[in-house]
Amino acid sequence: MEQIRQRMAALRTEADESASKAEEYKNKVKSLETETTQKEQEITSLTHRNQVLEGEVEKLEALVKTFKDEAGAGAAAGSQAEAMQRKIQVLEEEAEESDRTIRELNEKLRQTDVKSGHYERKVQALEQERDQWEAKFEEMQKKFNEKEAELKALADELNAI
């Protein structure tokens, strides 16, 4: 009987140890279940965050594409601006050349106006001189006609004698 009691005590001890281990395992299972729930929540949170981040990545990729397109357009605009700048420079040079030509032409016109004024005065002086000569000619013509008439009258008198 003693053996049974020892065996029973051993079984009780074993049962107590098993109950203790079972309790320990239950606690461990609860802890693991809690940990699993936390991990699942963390996974759900991370999955949601991952989806949000993927959405942001898509938006950012679209922005990058837009920026690349705009950069390409900016480069085209830059080259167009350079072409326009060169064209402006050429037009400015042509304008300067035109200004120089206009100044030269204005100087020549001024000189021509001065010469024209000088020649106009000469023409007026010559016209006055012509008018004086015409007046003298008319006066001399008158005198000639008078003298011719006197000469004719004298010739007629001499013929009559």
TrEMBL record:
User: What keywords would UniProt list here?
Assistant: Coiled coil
Q: Which branch of life, at top level?
A: Eukaryota
Q: Where is the signal peptide?
A: none
- Basic and acidic residues bias (residue ranges): 13-42
Q: Does the keyword Hydrolase apply?
A: no
Query: Key word Coiled coil present in the record?
Result: yes
Identify the PANTHER family for this entry: TROPOMYOSIN
Q: What is this protein called?
A: Tropomyosin-like protein
| Highest classification ranks of the organism | Eukaryota, Fungi, Dikarya, Ascomycota, Pezizomycotina
